[in-house]
Structure formats: structure tokens, C-alpha cells
């Protein structure tokens, strides 16, 4: 079975269980953080997520909505504990950046539901995915 290389925007395929193509072998979280998460294109977003303002708002949102709002909305028989505060409008959009600290633009969600979200502006999708 084949899968895409885990490096964002790489189009090479590798045999499972390999994660990286020959060009990207040796990539790890440290390299990802250095070359992707804190890259010049992402500097503003990385700084935002490290800000005290965001950290306080995130904690507050999780304290008032500790259970996954997506699980509840989807009518799941069980609701997971929320561990992520998700922006409804991605902060990489003009509207999302404007509303990045608006509590009405946030939802408390679990990791499982967050993984199902479509992120049009993620590196994986490179802005190609259609907006919801």
C-alpha cells in the first residue's frame, strides 16, 4: 500500500509503513517546527498561538465548554472531552484573522473531531480545498 510523503506539499509516494520519501527521510518534529511551523510565511500565526492573549482565551473557552461541541452537534451518543479550541473561520483568512480572538468564532472540540475538519488553508491543502 502506498501513501504520500508526510512533508507538506511533497508529491512523492512511499510504501507503508514508511512516512517520508528519500528526499525527506530524517524529517522529524524539530525540523517540521523549524521549516514549516515557524517559517517566514507562518511567523505571524506562530506568534499568535504563543501569545498570552490566545492562551488565556483558549483556557477560558475550554473552561466554559469542556465537552466537544462537534460531538454534541453531530448527535454522538457519547461526547468526548474537548482538548482543542478550534477557529470556525481559519485564521489564515482575512475574516478569520479579524475574528481570531472573538469567542463566537471558537469552538471546543476533541482531537478526533478536529482531525475530521477540512482546513482549506492548511499546508496539506495549500488553499486548494473548497470552503465550507
| Shape by Cα distribution | globular
**Record field, number of beta strands:** 4
Order of SSEs? EEHHHHEHEH
Largest sheet: 2 strands, antiparallel
In percent terms, what proportion of residues is strand? 5-15%
Arrangement of strands in the largest sheet: 1-2
Low-confidence stretches: 127-132
The number of helical elements comes to: 6
Structural class: alpha+beta
Rg over CA atoms: 17 Å
Describe the structure.
With 132 residues, this protein is α+β, with helices and mostly antiparallel strands. The longest helix is centred in the middle third of the chain and has 13 residues. Strand 1 and strand 2 form a beta hairpin. The protein contains six helices and four strands.
Summary keywords:
globular, 132 residues, alpha+beta, 6 helices, 4 strands, two-stranded antiparallel ribbon
Secondary-structure topology with pairs:
Layout: E1 2-4, E2 13-15, H1 29-37, H2 43-50, H3 52-64, H4 69-73, E3 84-87, H5 94-98, E4 106-109, H6 111-116
Antiparallel strand pairs: 1-2, 3-4
Concise structural overview:
The chain has 132 residues and is α+β, with helices and mostly antiparallel strands. The chain contains 6 helices and 4 strands, in the order E-E-H-H-H-H-E-H-E-H. The strands form 2 sheets. Strands 1-2 form a two-stranded antiparallel ribbon. Strands 3-4 form a two-stranded antiparallel sheet.
